[in-house]
């Protein structure tokens, strides 16, 4: 059927709503058991996807306000008791989106009609409600009598029915632990699940900063508790930590989520620094601080600077984009700027502080004269290095060439067609060399009966076979010239 807001029906099962109503749509979920035994209590949980105005939720039982809960920074408070909620009476989640009360039953009531009411301010202010009904079972005696049925039989029937419907309390989850961390120390968050649990478990913890999930963390699970330890916490560990648990009943799997906020007591955290070297140099520092920061202080060397004709200091609030655990997060931060109207060079320091400590950052601006001298010195040193390297390379090349030349002179090249080379043989100590005697060189013939005189001629040679410098031993061939007398 076609249903319009006026209630007129036509031929399709489509509901048309005013498009502006979506801007005011908030989902409220009210959960509780279907049955409760009279004299006992039942936990009822009311949650929404948007925190209600004033962090207040009202519970109405059978037309009468039962309790109003309000979430404060210091805890969960009950309007009925005008004090902080006890653990066995009422509860609030840290993000102010979930509220729970314990409702009692009496014989006079056969059912508990419960309404959860929350007020919201989005485009306009409006109230949204959700309701459930819990049946009260009288196990001690029947409300009706049946002819032929004894009271004992009815009690047994009622008790069996009570066991069959399996009265259940919806799971309740809460985070306990210290949520304020001093820098470099550690804290532990513990998430516990209670109520009627069948098959249950925990998923990864989620860490979010300004609504952006920056990482997921593994908790240490023990029974119905998941514990998360943040060791040596720093500025990037602040934010909302969400514990996610689930409970499976038959084929239905319900998820529960609860969050807590962790604050880190730390000095200002510098995100970026800039030097704008324009006609008037400007030094700038962007930083974050959870606590309200003090006014930044600027120094030139050790002299404190104030606004004057020489220097201008401007401090502003700004929006910064920071990388946290690999994710870009847009945060509300601060910026401080120092303009050097006199262009004075030197060392400048900015001191940032809050009630948790101080952080400083230095800028070193070298004067133009110093910069020029530094350039000259750098140029001279570069020239000297080049000269030394060049001389070393040239010397090395000359040395290599010299060694190569010596080797070539000592080596004999192979030349099969080369002729024999003759060398003079050393003198024999007992033989007089023919060239060392002063004579005519002729043998005179004399008449004598003596035997002929013989001259010994040494034949000296050296054979270089196939270009080898093989020196042979000396062989002496004796030639005899016989001189006969006439």
Automatic annotation (TrEMBL):
The EC class name is transferase
Check the record and name the InterPro entries matching this protein: Ig-like_dom, Ig-like_dom_sf, Ig-like_fold
All copies of the Ig-like domain together span 170-265
Q: Out of the domains of life, which is the source? A: Eukaryota
A GO molecular-function descriptor: protein serine/threonine kinase activity
Keywords, sorted A to Z: Membrane, Transferase, Transmembrane, Transmembrane helix
Q: Which SUPFAM superfamilies match?
A: Immunoglobulin
Record keywords: Protein transport included? Answer: no
Annotated TM spans:
372-400
EC no. given is 2.7.11.1
Keyword Membrane recorded: yes
- Name it: TTN
Look up and give the organism this protein is from. Mytilus coruscus (Sea mussel)
- Highest classification ranks of the organism: Eukaryota, Metazoa, Spiralia, Lophotrochozoa, Mollusca
